[in-house]
Amino acid sequence: MSKVLVTGGAGFIGSHLVDRLVQEGFEVVVLDNLSSGSPENIKIHVENPKFQFIRGDVRVRGLVRRALRGVDCVFHLAAVASVDLSIRRPDIVNDVNVTGTLGLLEESRRADVEKFVFTSSCAVYGEPIKLPVDEEHPTRPLSPYGASKLAAEHYCSVYHRVYGLDTVILRLFNVYGPRQERSPYGGVISRFIERLRRGLAPVIFGGTQTRDFVYVGDAVEALMLAMRSKDCIGMTINVGSGVEVSIRELADKLIKIFGLRVRPILSRPRPGDVSRMCADIRRAKEVLRFEPKTSLEDGLKACIKA
């Protein structure tokens, strides 16, 4: 494969993926409407003759067809990723995350794309009934966002079974790293860091939740492995660290790194949040030969330095 399309390539994860692809010599097309992505994330590539940026919405079929010309592999990261917005406006989230994915799948099929890599979310699982969560765990989303990702997954699977499009679904857990703070959907780590930079205590919604944090560089490695692997076609694969970390422990680690004398502020849980989460990544290890390499401590320090 020599030419790839990254939808949402100006976003947090997408821009790190673009960096890796350009570094390895791929011809890269980015389609992004910049609703949550930033031109700052991809500015170092704009003069590269093997890089093309198309500003536009993944729901606009004409732009999608233009972006797909000569493309061998599609990485579909464009999405509305806000749980809060999905609760307020489920119609918008469904339109982008489901209808947008369906249109991209159809145009990819017509363009004879060789591989379609879809980035889904652990939000499809809802509240776990067992931990760690493997790919056979029941899917019971707690938010319209999670439901939209699950519906898009089903379309990817159908396009593989019915039309023969080689698809793979990666269910990303809590990805973090540099540039996350530039997104309006920045995760808990970027919010904690932002407050600690100002000498303020981090705010924890709930107090007892746990999450599986995976560094963005490791998530990008999983995406690259999925593109190259023939064994993962038609599969759904968890991408996480395989380590369960409490939000309180996360806050304490960051407070220690900053050297502050503050205590986290506990607030009410937010709707749509699960209480515990941790990925079973055995399939990723066996099929993709994926191995997360960045410890939480090293990843947090990289976020602070960025």
Q: Overview of this structure, please?
A:
The chain is of the alpha/beta class and 306 residues long. The chain contains 10 helices and 13 strands. The protein folds into 2 domains: 3-173 and 215-239, 3-Layer(aba) Sandwich (Rossmann fold); 175-211 and 243-305, UDP-galactose 4-epimerase, domain 1, CATH 3.90.25.10. The strands form 4 sheets. The chain has a 7-stranded parallel β-sheet, sandwiched between helices. Strands 7-10 form a two-stranded parallel ribbon. The chain starts with a strand and ends with a helix. The chain has helices at 12-23, 61-67, 83-88, 90-110, 144-163, 188-197, 216-228, 247-258, 282-288, 296-305; strands at residues 3-7, 27-32, 51-55, 73-76, 115-121, 167-172, 174-176, 203-205, 210-211, 213-215, 236-239, 245-246, 265-267.
Query: Beta fraction of the residues?
Result: 15-25%
Number of strands: 13
Summarize model confidence as the mean pLDDT: 95
CATH H-tier superfamily of the largest domain: NAD(P)-binding Rossmann-like Domain
How many separate domains? 2
N→C terminal distance:
32 Å
- CATH class of the largest domain, named Alpha Beta
What is the chain-wise order of helices and strands?
A: EHEEHEHHEHEEHEEEHEEHEHH
Radius of gyration: 19 Å
Q: Helical percent range? A: 25-40%
The number of helical elements comes to 10
Largest beta-sheet details:
7 strands, parallel
Sum up the overall morphology in one term. globular
Q: Could you please say which CATH topology of the largest domain applies here?
A: Rossmann fold
As residue ranges, the low-confidence spans are: none
Please name the CATH architecture of the largest domain: 3-Layer(aba) Sandwich
Trace the largest sheet across and list its strands. 3-2-1-4-5-6-11
